Amino acid sequence: MTQERFLKRKIIINDLTDLQPDYEPGTLVLTDSQAVVDECTSKHIPVAAYEDEGAQPIHCSQVLIDVDEIEDDDFENIYRRCAGIPWDIAYTNRCFIREFGMDDLDDLFELYSEPHMTDYMEPLFEYEEEKQYQENYIEYIYKLYGFGMWLIFDRFTGKLIGRAGLEVRETCDRENQAEMGFAIASSRWKQGLAYEVCSKIMELARDEYGLTSLIARCDPENLASRHLLEKLGFVIVGYETDGDCRYFREIL
């Protein structure tokens, strides 16, 4: 799999009369006008606001500071967020990590239907409930934190082979801490994929998201996950109220 670029062009529109009724896909409108933001939002045109120093604050889902300093990759992600396109997160030798998108829902159910996938973790909700859950997750977790539980794809076939990621949960008891979770398709167990992916996620947690420690939980009987966490440098520090082992690792 190669990274696809969706953003084709950026245009500055600061006068509502200059705004066209629609634009070709891949267009991001930049503006310092609340009226333009409101009109773009109502017409589902991807838009980001920029604010000059001392100007009236603009209400927009994407507000930019120091526009001239923003890198192309960041503009790509801004456009994707506006257009509802999942972010690419990272590559490993064999895997591609990206956000969940609603088009992935059926593949997610297929993943969870593999034998033994839910032996040590909660199954998905019923289809419509899971659909609503994932829509809310995109809106309130990805957009709020910039990270969350991601999808893992085989880099060469494009097939969904797992989930892994970082979440700020009630189990986190330190600042700049998140919980790491992972699940690899049972058909791909014992290939070192979980170690490969989690090692990359730990690197991202430190270098991209400024986290300083991670926790992880697993069922005491899930020996494979316990061995993996120990291999990743986690140490067991106790047990959660539900009986899960609690593991901890600093990533300074």
From TrEMBL:
<dbReference type="InterPro" id="IPR000182">
    <property type="entry name" value="GNAT_dom"/>
</dbReference>
<dbReference type="Pfam" id="PF13302">
    <property type="entry name" value="Acetyltransf_3"/>
</dbReference>
<dbReference type="InterPro" id="IPR016181">
    <property type="entry name" value="Acyl_CoA_acyltransferase"/>
</dbReference>
<dbReference type="GO" id="GO:0016747">
    <property type="term" value="F:acyltransferase activity, transferring groups other than amino-acyl groups"/>
</dbReference>
<keyword id="KW-0808">Transferase</keyword>
<dbReference type="InterPro" id="IPR051531">
    <property type="entry name" value="N-acetyltransferase"/>
</dbReference>
<protein>
    <submittedName>
        <fullName>Protein N-acetyltransferase, RimJ/RimL family</fullName>
    </submittedName>
</protein>
<feature type="domain" description="N-acetyltransferase">
    <location>
        <begin position="95"/>
        <end position="252"/>
    </location>
</feature>
